[in-house]
Design goal:
Two copies of one chain form a homodimer.
Chain A: E1 4-7, E2 10-11, H1 17-29, E3 33-41, E4 46-53, H2 55-72, E5 88-97, H3 101-119, E6 123-127, H4 138-142, H5 145-152, E7 174-178, E8 183-189, H6 194-204, E9 214-221, E10 226-233, H7 241-253, E11 259-265, H8 270-281, H9 292-297
Parallel strand pairs in A: 5-7, 6-7
Antiparallel strand pairs in A: 1-4, 1-5, 2-4, 2-5, 3-4, 8-10, 8-11, 9-10
Helix pairs in contact in A: 1-2, 2-3, 6-7
Chain lengths: 300, 300
Amino acid sequence: MAQILECIPNFSEGQDEEKIEKIVQPFKDISGVKLLDYSADKDHNRLVVTMIGSPDALKKSVLEAMEIAVDLIDMNEHAGEHPRMGAVDVVPFTPVRGVTMEEAVELANEVAQEASEKMELPIYLYEEAATTPERKNLADIRRGEFEGFADKIQQPEWKPDYGPAELHSTAGASVIGARMPLVAFNVNLDTDDLEIANEIARKVRHSGGGLRYCKAIGIDLNERGITQVSMNMTDYTKTALYQSYEMVKFEAERYGVDVIGSELIGLLPAQALFDVAEYYLGVEDFSGDQIMENRLLEEL
Amino acid sequence: MAQILECIPNFSEGQDEEKIEKIVQPFKDISGVKLLDYSADKDHNRLVVTMIGSPDALKKSVLEAMEIAVDLIDMNEHAGEHPRMGAVDVVPFTPVRGVTMEEAVELANEVAQEASEKMELPIYLYEEAATTPERKNLADIRRGEFEGFADKIQQPEWKPDYGPAELHSTAGASVIGARMPLVAFNVNLDTDDLEIANEIARKVRHSGGGLRYCKAIGIDLNERGITQVSMNMTDYTKTALYQSYEMVKFEAERYGVDVIGSELIGLLPAQALFDVAEYYLGVEDFSGDQIMENRLLEEL
């Protein structure tokens, strides 16, 4: 089966269009990578790139783009609203198909090692790739930002996972890691009572005793006169979309409220929907190899 | 969006492995085509090849394989159990994604025209590509087979759609066309009473007053002590899988019989399952572009 991951690197350049184009060029040129989107925010002074591809092609293109960014961006002159600590601020890899989390973590390590050696860049591993619980959360690593990092990096507990224990003079430090893709899934309720939507969200989400890989809040859709349980499914392979859908439905019943539809926001892996179809049709022994398009993807 | 079709050409050679390998070689060599399967049956003396790919790549590889088959196979020496009228007996194209039926018909015409010119081969168009109702059905065209065709081809109503109105001396004549992919979908019933399965099948299928693009029969699964409504969905874009599933369920209710699962047999397009997930989750405004893998397929 073809191995596909998504990668969403964040670079600290959101204003200079020439530099932005140079940084994304490798994602356009290298075969086996499909550039899905890149958007620069001037106020954040930050570039967010979304792409998918095979492990090898992603690795090659990310390393090239990192080198270009390290070359072009001077963090001493960088200002923007978004917290940041390096020219290549953060690089998450997420498995899409045929890739285990362990393999995504391995890829993050390979990229971190090569980048640290080539660019003399200090690099931290985060989320599933984190080497200690304190490094799991990006915000914890990044606290202090570029300006405070010259000191922080010298504390033993903040020794980088790869590269020198001192800040790169212009590119700062980077964070690389692996995590599951988020699936943004909203379920609409036939009520304008936000309190009901919030009550349901509380029961469905992990923190309220609900589903392990589900975050949820109630949202008011004023224009339509309805409310919504807005969910982030943080691991669709373990907590499936149909589980959160059915759970919203049976929680809504106690309020006499109907579920009247749903929304899928942004990108998601095909498997998240195959799982839904399999559940509702009760399909026995289904294999992804039966999907014609999956066979084509083996070629990549 | 990438255009993908499936093509399942049938060649009249099921015994000589050297020849078989030569015929399938273009499907292995030409990029943009993924050879999914090829199987030769000695008794039928027939080779069935399954592949998917872009229109251009399919056209190129099918024409090359046809030329090789026309070169290698002498129908005067061919014997086998399966009815046949030519070296390249039949070539159906089926839309998988981003392709309309009109475009599949156009592709069938292009291949038929080029093949008839290059190989001096008489060619008939069938199914959706048929030019008259009498030519829709493959069995009607093929009746008489190679041995009877020297006469049949001279009747005005059996003038080929492309190529000369006489049989190719060694390769006979070919049938090329376009049709929807079949999705084989079986729904299991918690009863061993075949009569009930047959009654339900009768109500669900088109010929019994049921769904327009659904064929169905009852089947006894002796080993499991259950029965099954075995269906062929002849156009999943118009009659969706969830429709036939729900219909089996509500017909089964009158017998107090439960639906206890289902089976998807063989290959199917991803969209057939996306439609199911969309229905059961009630997803609003969903676009195939949101599926990560779909974006990768655009590259092909």
